[in-house]
Amino acid sequence: MIDYPEKLDLAQTPTPFYSLDRLSERLGGPRIWIKRDDLTGAATSGNKIRKLEFLFAEALASGCDTVITSGGVQSNHCRAVAVLGAQLGLKVHLLLRSDIAPQPVGNLLLDQLAGATISHYSVAEFEQLDRLFERWQSHYTDLGSRAYSIPTGGSNGTGMWGYIAAAEELSRDFQREGIVTAQIVHATGSGGTQAGLMLGCYLHQLNASVKAYAVCDDNAYFTDKVRADLQQWQSQYSPETDISILQADTCDQYVGPAYGVAGEEIFTMIKQIAASDGILLDPVYTGKAFYGMIEDIKQSKFTANDIVFVHTGGLFGLFAQQQQLGY
Fold first, then answer.
1. Residues near 292 by Cβ (< 8 Å), separated by ≥ 6?
2. I need a surface site. Which of 21, 37, 140, 251 has the fewest CB within 10 A?
């Protein structure tokens, strides 16, 4: 029995889990399943909510009245923090990365509607992100407030608990559907979901491997980032747990031109999957991972009979790039 830390009930879980039979038949490869973590909420949809259940619980337990976090201008994580912060009565300050004048669309529109304080920074300024956090932490201390900082994507030892718990949920899905062994696929950007799923499968003895598709950076980056998150979790929560066996499996072949920038093939696939299977993907995260999964199935790179795609959300980011869809 795993002793979870305190959490808030913010996500609508368990999320749906079902097979994509028509897609599996079209590809002629392994059976494809989908875990609909895009349905964890409405305005708070996506994988970040699982992490934030634990992070917000920690913030409230420490007496904080303000939450500071960071991400890209269309960050799903920042949108979720903004909306949940409003629900919980907390002030939210978002540090957003953008090299162009941001338009109030998609996630940014929802950040503004939720009343978040927003500071925009260039990519160059974001290289000093730790200093930005320190600056604003001191600012709120000087005002007599108590601020809690959440790293980009909610990806740290505390946030990992969200996907340790998700792996336990997946074990029940597997048992119900008679899945004996599987490969779990998802998009990775900040590494926290990846680390949590890996550790969760290990702790819950789920007979599954985790393959992440990078949407930024390269394989070496995620190897280091996942290791750092695992070590932080071990140090903070379970020094006796041996994590040496856990090695990140990250595919960086489908990142595309840059983070948040997708090629024409991704948008074409997004339209095709929406029309053929009713699955809505986004060009920043899930679109790249789903495309990579399909291409690797075509190349017979998967060994398991069952593939589970964890849909981590991102619908609002699609609205910010709708012109790329040709509509």
1. 213, 251, 253, 254
2. 21
